[in-house]
Amino acid sequence: MTLDRIYQAVHLLKPSVRRTEIIPYPGIKSDCDLYLKAENLQLTGSFKLRGAYFKISMLSDDEKQKGVIACSAGNHAQGVALAARDMGISATIFIPSVSPLSKIEATRRLGAEVRIIDGFYDDAHQAALKHQKESGGVFIHPFNDEDVIAGQGTIALEILECMPDVEAIVVPVGGGGLISGIAFAIKMLRPSCKVYGVQAAGAASMYSSLEKGELVRLPTVSTFADGIAVKAPGDLTFDMCCKYVDQVVTVTDDEIATAILTLMEQEKLVSEGAGAVSVAAILFHKLPLSGKKVCAIVSGGNVDVNILSRIISRGLRTTGRLSELTVEMIDKPGQLQEVSSVVAQLGANVIKVIHNPSGENTDINGCYLHLSLETKDKAHFQGIIETMQARGYNILP
């Protein structure tokens, strides 16, 4: 890897890849000066277009004639499909069955032949390699390739041009192609700048590999952030992360959902799970960023709209804005009105009520009142519980 290769990628990508905005983000609850690199607004909705386009641009005419093959959870697939279409090259792309239907259909619309493989990214990878041997096409790896990494590294040059005094960059990590390109360029041009990676806790292959000092292959992955659900990093990306990345941390799916909700509410930005992990790490104070000028990469916006309502609901619950309260009481007229009145006086809103008769271990004329509440935060909800307990209500855990 060289800086010249990344500068070459900048030149080749200029006509075809969008230079995405860097957006100040003063509203986040953090003690750093935060900016967002909005790669979710990239063509195809993800940074993956950069690496795929540059890699395919560098193929020889003979290689282009053979066509390209790729495997992807969806974002790399769209990047390869768009690049292949623009250059008049056939593309066959293997996508795991867990990928959102929206990503699969978007890849088909770009003209690629799509083959769905049961399982996760690594299963699609094996199927793609088998097809490459049989067909003789050129395999475009989503992360473990120097040209792909160089294409992703163009993001770092854009950041440095707009933020020459940046002190830390926070990057989503799956297989490691994005953070490898960014970290290499940053450490060559501004070595004092920290580069931090963030993975989903249910797919922490790079985190585990760096902790152990050797490549780790996870037996399985579990996260709704499908874009970074990778069982093992590449050997090239692992080596580059060992050399150039300062730290990798993990975030839970609840924290990722909260970040997606926060970006939507405060910045009107739609992010997918993989794209929001960088913001989640900052929201939940996983990194030493106090007082620093920070750029977080929002790497993709191709969220599955079919689960978006569940993501929002999870984010509301994690932040204490959607709360559940169960009250044990005597079943008599007026009880619901009394409880609702207390909740309203404390500034919360009842959005759902379930009334159940008592169980075998309670008074025969007792009942359970289960309330779903809109609350300000966890402290607000705790205040409601304490007030109701002080008024004699029995609140169940």
The residue-averaged pLDDT reads 93
Strands, total number: 14
Poorly predicted tracts of residues: none
Structural class: alpha/beta
- In order across it, which strands form the biggest sheet? 1-2-10-7-8-9
Q: Return Rg in Å.
A: 24 Å
Total helix count?
A: 15
Major pleated sheet:
6 strands, mixed
Q: Write down the secondary-structure element order.
A: HEEHHEHEHEHEHEHEHHEHHEHEHEEHE
- Write down the overall geometry: elongated
Structural commentary:
There is one protein chain. By secondary structure, the protein is an alpha/beta fold. Helices cover 44% and strands 20% of the residues. A six-stranded mixed beta sheet has the order 1-2-10-7-8-9, with helices on both faces. Strands 5-4-3-6 form a four-stranded parallel beta sheet, with helices on both faces. Helix 2 (48-57) packs parallel to helix 4 (75-87), helix 4 (75-87) runs parallel beside helix 5 (101-109) and helix 7 packs across helix 8 (177-189). The protein is elongated, with a radius of gyration of 24 Å.
Descriptive terms for the model:
about 400 residues; alpha/beta; four-stranded parallel β-sheet; 15 helices; elongated
Summarize the structure.
The protein is built from 15 helices and 14 strands.
Strand and helix map with partners:
Layout: H1 3-13, E1 22-24, E2 33-38, H2 48-57, H3 61-66, E3 68-71, H4 75-87, E4 91-96, H5 101-109, E5 113-117, H6 121-135, E6 138-139, H7 146-162, E7 168-172, H8 177-189, E8 194-200, H9 205-212, H10 235-244, E9 247-251, H11 253-267, H12 273-283, E10 293-298, H13 308-318, E11 322-330, H14 335-345, E12 349-357, E13 366-374, H15 378-390, E14 394-396
Helix pairs in contact: 1-7, 2-4, 2-7, 4-5, 7-8, 8-10, 11-12, 11-13
